[in-house]
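pls design
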C-alpha cells in the first residue's frame, strides 16, 4: 500500500535563524527569504514548517554571501524527509530494543500516522542506521587511548537476512562497545571480507584479538588484514556442536 501523499494541516510554523549578529563582523543579520516548506508527520501531530535563513547586512563582509540557517527547522525532520526525528527514533527503538519485524512496527504506527511498511523499512535503513553511525563515530576519538591499553579487541558478526536480503555485518570493539564498521554484504567470500575490514586496518591502531564465527571466507580474510592478531571463534557455537551428540 502506498503512503497517501496529501496531508492537510492548519498548523504552520516558520523558524528563522536564531542568530541576530554576523559571526564574521558582528553586524546585524537580515532575513534573506522564506523557503523549505514541507509537511512533516510526527508522533503527535502533522505540521507544515518552513525556515527563514539570514545573511549579513554588511556588503563588505566576507560572510555576506553565506546563509545562516535555522537550527530548529533542521531539528524537526531530516533534509528531504517528511517524517520527524521522533518517528525515526520510534522505529529504531522498536526494531532494536523490542526486536519487532517491519510488519509489526508498521501495524503499530499506522494507527497514529500515515505510513507504509516500505517507508518504515526505508526510514530504518537509510535514516535511523545513518544517525546511529554518526553517534558511534563521535566515540572514535577514544580508540587510540584504548589501543594503548593492550590493543583493540574486535568482534565480527553477521545478522541473518530477512526475505533474501544481504547480510548486515558489524565490527565492534569489545572493551568500549564502539561499532567500528557496519554494512550490507551480498557476498561473504575472502575478497569481500578483506575490503570490508581494510578501513579498520587503515586506522593504524594495533589489533590484538579478533572474535568471530568460522565462515569460510572470513578466516583467511582476518589472517590477511590482521596478521598479528589472535583469532578465536564463538564459544556458543563450540558448545552447541559439543552438545549435538
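designed seq:
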Amino acid at each position: 500500500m502506498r503512503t497517501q501523499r496529501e496531508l492537510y494541516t492548519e498548523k504552520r510554523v516558520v523558524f528563522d535563524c536564531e542568530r541576530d549578529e554576523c559571526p564574521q563582523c558582528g553586524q546585524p543579520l537580515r532575513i534573506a527569504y522564506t523557503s523549505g516548506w514541507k509537511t512533516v508527520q510526527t508522533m503527535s501531530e502533522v505540521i507544515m514548517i518552513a525556515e527563514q535563513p539570514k545573511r549579513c547586512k554588511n556588503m563588505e563582509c566576507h560572510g555576506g554571501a553565506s546563509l545562516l540557517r535555522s537550527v530548529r527547522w533542521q531539528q524537526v525532520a531530516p533534509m528531504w524527509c517528511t517524517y520527524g526525528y521522533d518517528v525515526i527514533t520510534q522505529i529504531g527503538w522498536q526494531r532494536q530494543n523490542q526486536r519487532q519485524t517491519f510488519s509489526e512496527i508498521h501495524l503499530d504506527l499506522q494507527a497514529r500516522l500515515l505510513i507504509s511498511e516500505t517507508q518504515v523499512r526505508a526510514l530504518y535503513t537509510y535514516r535511523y542506521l545513518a544517525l546511529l553511525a554518526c553517534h558511534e563515530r563521535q566515540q572514535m576519538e577514544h580508540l587510540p587511548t584504548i589501543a594503548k591499553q593492550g590493543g583493540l579487541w574486535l568482534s565480527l558478526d553477521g545478522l541473518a537476512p530477512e526475505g533474501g536480503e544481504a547480510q548486515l555485518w558489524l565490527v565492534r570493539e569489545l572493551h568500549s562497545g564502539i561499532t567500528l564498521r557496519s554494512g550490507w554484504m551480498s557476498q561473504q567470500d575472502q575478497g569481500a571480507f578483506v575490503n570490508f575490514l581494510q578501513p579498520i586496518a587503515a586506522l593504524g591502531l594495533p589489533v590484538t584479538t579478533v572474535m568471530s564465527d568460522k565462515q569460510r571466507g572470513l578466516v583467511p580474510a582476518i589472517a590477511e588484514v590482521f596478521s598479528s592478531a589472535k583469532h578465536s571463534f564463538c564459544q556458543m557455537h563450540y558448545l552447541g556442536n559439543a552438545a549435538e551428540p
